[in-house]
Write a structure and sequence with these properties.
The protein is α+β, with helices and mostly antiparallel strands. It has one domain. The protein has 9 helices and 4 strands. Helix 5 packs antiparallel against helix 6 and helix 7 packs antiparallel against helix 9. The longest helix is centred in the last third of the chain and has 34 residues. The chain is globular. It starts with a helix and ends with a helix. The relative contact order is 0.12.
Length: about 230
């Protein structure tokens, strides 16, 4: 029983962290976001809504500067103020921003947004349990090794989610008559758009390379349009 205690404690820690993370994320988004009101974007989201047999797709603006999209665990879709400002300045088209919304819808539809929150909690639990075990085997290095292993696992899962959400977005954009071109042109702009705001190491670990994402989109397009 004593040998199982660290693992049980880690699992309990993971459950508590999951509950806390969901609560904290929801509170932050509620406090710093409002529903997006934009006629051009609404026309595009309405086309996607019809393709999904939905009445509408509400989108919210999250009042932070970095350029990003977000799918919350409760299914809400967010575009950051920084991204919307790029659109208003003409650096991003309405169709390109719609492709971001389609991508985030993919995360929701495929269960990524909720699973990521669970994964985050599970990773913390796994990191804690591994750290306890490895610290006994490799004193002084156990925690560092546990952090590295869980980070690599999280990055692999995240990259897989991104490819899946890209494919969902492509299918939706085609069905809505918007097309895949805006999705590809946006990816080609990402480096410039996120300059100065992107935590490079974290991004590179958790997101596939842009050229690989474009290649995957084009392969899907060829397969679907034959």
């Amino acid at each position: 029983m004593l040998k199982l205690t660290p693992i049980l404690l880690a699992l309990l820690y993971g459950i508590v962290m999951y509950r806390f993370s969901v609560w904290r994320t929801g509170r932050e988004l509620d406090a710093r976001s409002t529903e997006l009101v934009d006629a051009r974007l609404k026309a595009l989201t309405d086309r996607m809504a019809r393709a999904l047999d939905l009445k509408r797709i509400p989108v919210n603006i999250y009042e932070i500067a970095p350029v990003n999209g977000l799918a919350a665990p409760d299914g809400r879709i967010f575009i950051t103020r920084g991204f919307y400002d790029k659109y208003r300045a003409g650096e991003v088209t309405a169709e390109e921003l719609a492709s971001v919304i389609a991508h985030e819808l993919g995360h929701v539809a495929l269960g990524h947004s909720r699973r990521r929150m669970i994964d985050f909690s599970g990773q913390n639990a796994l990191r804690t349990a591994l750290g306890m075990v490895l610290s006994r085997l490799v004193p002084g290095l156990g925690v560092a090794i546990a952090n590295m292993l869980t980070s690599l696992l999280a990055a692999k899962l995240s990259r897989k989610d991104e490819f899946e959400a890209d494919a969902y977005a492509s299918a939706l954009l085609l069905k809505a008559g918007i097309g895949i071109a805006p999705q590809k042109t946006l990816f080609k702009k990402l480096d410039a758009l996120t300059s100065g705001h992107r935590p490079v190491a974290a991004w590179l670990m958790s997101h596939p390379k842009t050229e690989l994402r474009i290649k995957a989109i084009e392969e899907n397009e060829r397969r679907w349009t034959v």
